Amino acid sequence: MSFLKSIGAVLAGFVANVVLSLTTDVGVYAAWGVPAFSQPMTDALFLLAIGYRAVFGVVAGWIAARLAPMAPMRHALALGALGLILSTLGALAAWNEPGLGPRWYSVAIAAVALPSAWLGGRLRGSR
């Protein structure tokens, strides 16, 4: 049963990160008048996206640690590792696709995945 709770904790953090990121993306696109996926974003918007995705990574790491049945930091780091793997795969897939954004953005998203989840786990552990 503990194994299922562990999977659920990491999955809950992952889902929270995805939902927060996607809903914020829609809001940012709408606020800046950029129709989603039809026009390229500016570097400023990519920087903004990295910032809020890093914050959401912290929140997701906190959720995974909070719901963990034991070893909260290990769950936060598992979530961070999952984010690092998935974002690295995304960066590799997007590398030669100019319509998917600049390469630095894909690399930055991968780079913040693990530290953000770690910070979320630390914040949970400090309570």
Structural write-up:
The chain is an all-alpha fold and 127 residues long. The chain has one domain (2-125). The chain is built from 4 helices and no strands. The longest helix is centred in the first third of the chain and has 31 residues, at 2-32. The chain is elongated and about 45 Å long.
Q: Which ranges are low-confidence, i.e. pLDDT below 50, for 5 or more consecutive residues?
A: none
Number of helices: 4
Radius of gyration: 15 Å
Number of domains: 1
**Main sheet properties:** none
State the end-to-end distance: 25 Å
Question: What's this entry about, in short?
Answer:
The protein has four helices and no strands.
Write the layout of secondary structure elements.
Blueprint (H helix, E strand, L loop, with lengths): L1 H31 L10 H25 L4 H23 L8 H23 L2
Helix pairs in contact: 1-2, 1-3, 2-3, 2-4, 3-4
Properties at a glance:
127 residues, mainly alpha, 4 helices
